[in-house]
UniProtKB/TrEMBL annotation:
GO terms for cellular component: ciliary basal body. SUPFAM superfamilies: TPR-like. This is Bardet-Biedl syndrome 4 protein-like. Residues 382-411 are annotated as: Disordered. Keywords: Repeat, TPR repeat. GO terms for biological process: cilium assembly; protein localization to cilium. Residues 388-401 have a biased composition (Basic and acidic residues). Gene3D superfamilies: Tetratricopeptide repeat domain (1.25.40.10). Belongs to the BBS4 family.
Length: 411
């Protein structure tokens, strides 16, 4: 109906009605017919070249067509015609600068947008651009100022909460993520980040609920499928966990992290051959990740492959100051009968744990078990598994693992 009315106006005014051209361009742009919309806006510019609004719409259409440099130039022309500072133009210039690879210039335009009263859009854009320039603290300050000055939506609150979590402020992150979910319960990023926090604190039941909510709004989210699978594995729901992790790999076949997580679950379920296949893919995609190489070494050892020692050495060379890698290398030396090397590496692990900023109770427990086994090694010809990846090991856990009934590996 809107298009019909605009055509009637054009017929009555010999195709020179500026507002009818403008409205028709907006409708066409909304329908995704961007090239036709550009023609309508260019007609507006030809009829009256001093109005910045058609130029702004031209810049938007060009941006949606991924013609970022042309969009940037159109926004500059609109800025020249604008009689007052226009936050919308400045935000558009910042986004175009970011897209063409000049994040520093984008930060300047975003600051101008904030000063011009751009509100939530300008503040959130400034924070993202600062983060792209590896300026974490200024990005946090930008989010804080934006949230304090305006009533922000769930997306901005979720992004600020995720950044707080990354900066090591779980309390502030929890408040922001909770506010985002209270405003929109289906906010995918907030649910995912909050679930990660809950998993870190061992509350797998609440984390499962958040992850399922995230998957309801974003069924193809690889991270949600992967985290849900790991959470189910911790609750010993192995089939469901493996299904979720397999689905994550199917959605992202070139994701090294998804393959790593699936391999970790397969190792937990005593399927080292399948885990090795996934880890081979993960290390091909991300050869410098020490924990993936460490998992590969564990899989090779369980398969009885002679290349396990080389893989353990590679993991240690990639992360010589990682206590998790060090304790597993020490356990490998012990199981292979190299007791002196095992003792030296265990002492190195103890030193790394002492030098670390945060004490790791799981690693400390694993190291304690390993040291006790090494002290008793004179009466033993073999050292049992002393340290499993990312999990404390004690005699009760080892007995529980033996009593679990897993399906045999397919090889």
């Amino acid at each position: 109906m809107c298009l019909e009315l605009s055509d009637e106006l054009q017929n009555k005014n010999y195709n020179r009605h500026i507002y009818a051209h403008f409205i028709k361009g907006l409708v066409l742009a909304e329908a995704g017919r961007l090239q036709e919309a550009l023609e309508r806006f260019h007609s507006c510019i030809k009829l009256y070249s001093q109005d910045p609004e058609p130029l702004k719409q031209v810049a938007r259409c060009l941006y949606r067509q991924d013609r970022f440099q042309l969009s940037y130039e159109a926004y500059l022309e609109a800025d020249k015609l604008a009689k007052h500072p226009d936050a919308e133009i400045y935000c558009g210039l910042a986004e175009c600068s970011w897209k063409v690879g000049d994040a520093v210039r984008g930060v300047e335009w975003a600051r101008a947008g904030v000063q011009a009263g751009g509100g939530e859009r300008a503040g959130a854009l400034l924070a993202r651009l600062l983060l792209a320039c590896d300026q974490l603290e200024p990005a946090l300050q930008a989010y804080d100022q934006t949230i304090a000055a305006t009533a922000c939506g769930a997306d901005t609150l979720a992004a600020a909460g995720a950044l707080r979590l990354r900066a090591g402020d779980p309390r502030g992150a929890f408040q922001l993520l909770g506010a985002a979910l209270a405003q929109r319960p289906g906010q995918h990023a907030a649910a995912l980040a909050l679930a990660a926090m809950l998993l870190q604190h061992g509350d797998s039941h609440a984390a499962l609920a958040r992850l399922k909510a995230a998957l309801n709004t974003h069924p193809t989210c690889v991270a949600a499928h992967s985290n849900l699978g790991l959470a189910l594995i911790t609750r010993k729901k192995y089939i469901a966990g493996l299904t979720c992790l397999q689905r994550a790999v199917q959605w992202a076949p070139l994701s090294a992290r998804a393959a790593h997580n699936l391999a970790l679950a397969l190792l937990t379920c005593r399927r080292p051959a399948s885990a090795f296949c996934r880890l081979a893919s993960a290390t091909a995609l991300q050869p410098e990740h020490p924990h993936t190489v460490l998992l590969l070494a564990i899989a090779l050892e369980r398969l009885g492959d002679s290349r396990a020692d080389a893989a353990y050495g590679r993991a240690l060379s990639l992360a010589p100051h990682d206590a998790l890698v060090s304790v597993n290398v020490a356990a490998r030396h012990g199981r292979a009968g190299r007791l002196q090397l095992a003792l030296e590496e265990a002492n190195n692990t103890a030193q790394l744990l002492q030098d670390g900023n945060k004490a790791d109770a799981h690693l400390a427990s694993s190291l304690s078990v390993l040291m006790n086994l090494l002290q008793d090694a004179g009466a033993q010809s073999d050292i049992p598994d002393g340290a499993e990846l990312e999990r404390p090991v004690d005699r009760k856990d080892r007995a529980d693992a033996i009593n679990d009934n897993f399906a045999p590996d397919e090889v």
